Amino acid sequence: MLKKHIPVACAILLACTVAQAQDQILNIYSARHYPTDEALYTNFTKTTGIKINRVDADDAGILARLKAEGSASPADVILLVDAARLWKGEVEGLFQPVKSQLLDNTIPGQLRGKVTADGASPWFGFSTRARVIVYNKVKVQKDDVDTYEELGDPKNRGKLCIRSGSHPYNLSLFGAVLEHLGEQKTEAWLKGMVDNMARGPKGGDTDQIKGVAAGECAIAVTNSYYLARIMRSDKPEDKAIMDRVGVVFPNQASWGTHVNIAGGAVARNAKNPANAIKFLEYLASPSAQDHFANGNNEWPVTKGLKISNPALQAMTGGSFKSETIPISVVGMNQVKVQQMLDRVGFK
Ligand code: FE
């Protein structure tokens, strides 16, 4: 056998080289679907020498894949774009809690999963996005849409465009509203939205904004970064959209605008856990946080970062009041919300 002829020192060296090569790899399963993120990954590899292999899928697809792969899964880091899905990954035991002084110091407590007795957290939110209301500036008064509650008010009959109720972004918004309003009011509100729809739910958030601009509807719901993308675009068709569309950060006078997160976790069966933690810590670094704000129009979660993104400045006037519930609540409320959607016929 060839092995026997390798001198001991060389065999050790070989083992070292192989181990070293393995150490320099990080396997990421990512639901972040933003082309500007390439810079985020490239910069990590440049500063650490760790090569990233990435599998892109949506939140549900990633969780299903992790489950199916079990202990054989090569995934080290999981990136998801919805708090309820992160919560689901946590309760299904797909993540391993991480203890990191740096993450403890930088990530606010309400943007983390359930902390273990020894202070480790199963996941962390690294950026936030507001779920905002857009409206046709000619057809709608801002005052008539400055709360989520008004989306279900009879005065807005026939005006609403919104993507599927079962999409994670909406399930999380509705789960947050359930937390704020209670079951009865939330179900009546969902029914009100069904009554107010200009058309059946279809398409993504950007399609809803376009629906308002095209006059198909007068009010819509979108994540803030989709709107910011249009606001920052030089294309004439996007400029035409912004001529017609206004934005409202709902519930500024009450519990604040619903804010969801994009977040990350270390996979339960990570083969490169040290690199995985290094990557999560990198996501909390000023350069990555700046990337979230300026590259993908999200809000950073770390304090003290100056945001120079003109679209974020323009849509908020500098700052806004966001809700302060522990974000994992939206996960816990999801089954109830889905049952309500089924009862009121919100597709
Ligand atoms: Fe998205």
Describe this structure as you would to a colleague.
It contains 15 helices and 10 strands. It folds into 2 domains: 27-127 and 260-308, Periplasmic binding protein-like II (D-Maltodextrin-Binding Protein, domain 2), CATH 3.40.190; 129-258 and 321-344, Periplasmic binding protein-like II (D-Maltodextrin-Binding Protein, domain 2, 3-Layer(aba) Sandwich). Strands 1, 2, 3, 4, 5, 6, 7, 8, 9 and 10 form a 10-stranded mixed sheet that branches. 44% of the residues lie in helices and 15% in strands. The longest helix has 16 residues, at 8-23. Helix 8 (205-214) crosses helix 10 (236-244). By secondary structure, it is α/β, with parallel strands linked by helices. Fe (iii) ion binds next to loops.
Draw up the topology in text.
Elements (H helix, E strand, L loop, with lengths): L7 H16 L1 E6 L7 H11 L2 E6 L2 H11 L7 E4 L2 H9 L3 E2 L4 H6 L17 E13 L23 E2 L6 H14 L1 H14 L8 H10 L4 E5 H8 L4 H9 E4 L10 E9 L5 H11 L2 H10 L3 E2 L9 H7 L12 H4 L1 H11 L3
Helix pairs in contact: 6-7, 6-15, 7-15, 8-10
Run of helices and strands: HEHEHEHEHEEHHHEHHEEHHEHHH
Number of domains: 2
CATH topology of the largest domain, anyone?
A: D-Maltodextrin-Binding Protein, domain 2
**Main sheet summary:** 10 strands, mixed
How many DSSP helices?
15
Helix residue percentage: 40-55%
Q: Report the CATH architecture of the largest domain.
A: 3-Layer(aba) Sandwich
Low-confidence stretches: 1-18
Strand content: 15-25%
Instruction: Choose one word for the global shape.
Output: globular
Mean pLDDT: 94
- Radius of gyration over all CA atoms, rounded: 22 Å
Question: How many β-strand runs?
Answer: 10
